């Protein structure tokens, strides 16, 4: 039995409100046909199992910070170039093990001097970073926070592993949060977060950290790459995202039929469909971009929001449900009414 998940509720007058959004993907596109040329797979196999037709991939010399800066710049412009008091970057692929990537991103955005730090929660990183930004606002430490999620995920994926190479891609998304009122458009409602470290081996990069380095032995071949137990991950992703979404809806006072747009972490098409069906949210209310951008890790939700807001599929006044799942294991959900941007 899963224990109840903690939920965040903002104090009166200090609700976290989204006032800007931005997304970025690298220009280099890798199609299924490109992968078929070097992997034992087919376009039909990839589409059937993942829903992906193409993905954006960094070229040599492009790092996570480059993606984060572009998304952050667009979010700041969307927020009418508002001055922010902190930068939170969610990433699984920092530019370096040390230092954190966020200070460099902040500096390139002209935000030198503000607190800037990384958050690591893999594909749930954006929701964890949102909650962190909300905490800064609630405490009065900041009036506006730039929250970015960026991953150059293909840099940690084994290019010869059919199970992961066809899924993961690179990108970034960002939002600007301000301290506002809980009843105004853009305000985050019940934010739910959870984790289960006993299952951390389901999604991991075994080598490169202090656990492996402390042995004094070289890593096992392939351990420098991302590993994922596909079937077990699928089951936990569906269960955890569904449970978190239901709790967030309950905390907001919404029923599934009240949701206008469902924006889930773009893991793969089968997981998205399974979670939406369990929640009773029909295809006409689901937002998805996985066919053209793949699974961009922690960046997937803000990138999805930025793209769908730009193309008009996500409109001001839409009641939105967010949910995500990733390594840790970690999961989360949140609700909001989309603002006019």
UniProtKB/TrEMBL annotation:
Q: Which Pfam families match?
A: ACP_syn_III (PF08545), ACP_syn_III_C (PF08541)
Q: List UniProt keywords, sorted A-Z.
A: Acyltransferase, Cytoplasm, Fatty acid biosynthesis, Fatty acid metabolism, Lipid biosynthesis, Lipid metabolism, Multifunctional enzyme, Transferase
Query: According to the UniProt record, where is the region ACP-binding?
Result: 266-270
Q: Where in the cell is it found?
A: Cytoplasm
Catalytic residues in the record? 123, 265, 295
**By its UniProt entry, which CDD domains does this protein fall under?**
KAS_III
Domain Beta-ketoacyl-[acyl-carrier-protein] synthase III C-terminal, residue spans: 250-338
Q: Extract the Gene3D superfamilies matched here.
A: 3.40.47.10
Q: Does the keyword Acyltransferase apply?
A: yes
Q: One biological process GO term for this chain?
A: secondary metabolite biosynthetic process
Q: What's its catalytic activity?
A: malonyl-[ACP] + acetyl-CoA + H(+) = 3-oxobutanoyl-[ACP] + CO2 + CoA
GO CC annotation terms, alphabetical: cytoplasm
Domain (Beta-ketoacyl-[acyl-carrier-protein] synthase III N-terminal): give its ranges.
117-197
Q: Where is the signal peptide?
A: none
Q: Name the PANTHER family for this protein.
A: 3-OXOACYL-[ACYL-CARRIER-PROTEIN] SYNTHASE 3, BETA-KETOACYL-[ACYL-CARRIER-PROTEIN] SYNTHASE III
Looking up HAMAP family in the UniProt record yields: FabH
How does this polypeptide assemble, per the annotation?
Homodimer.
Q: What is known of its domains?
A: The last Arg residue of the ACP-binding site is essential for the weak association between ACP/AcpP and FabH.
Record's function text: Catalyzes the condensation reaction of fatty acid synthesis by the addition to an acyl acceptor of two carbons from malonyl-ACP. Catalyzes the first condensation reaction which initiates fatty acid synthesis and may therefore play a role in governing the total rate of fatty acid production. Possesses both acetoacetyl-ACP synthase and acetyl transacylase activities. Its substrate specificity determines the biosynthesis of branched-chain and/or straight-chain of fatty acids.
Protein name stated in the entry: Beta-ketoacyl-[acyl-carrier-protein] synthase III
Say which species the protein is native to.
Streptomyces aquilus
State the encoding gene.
fabH
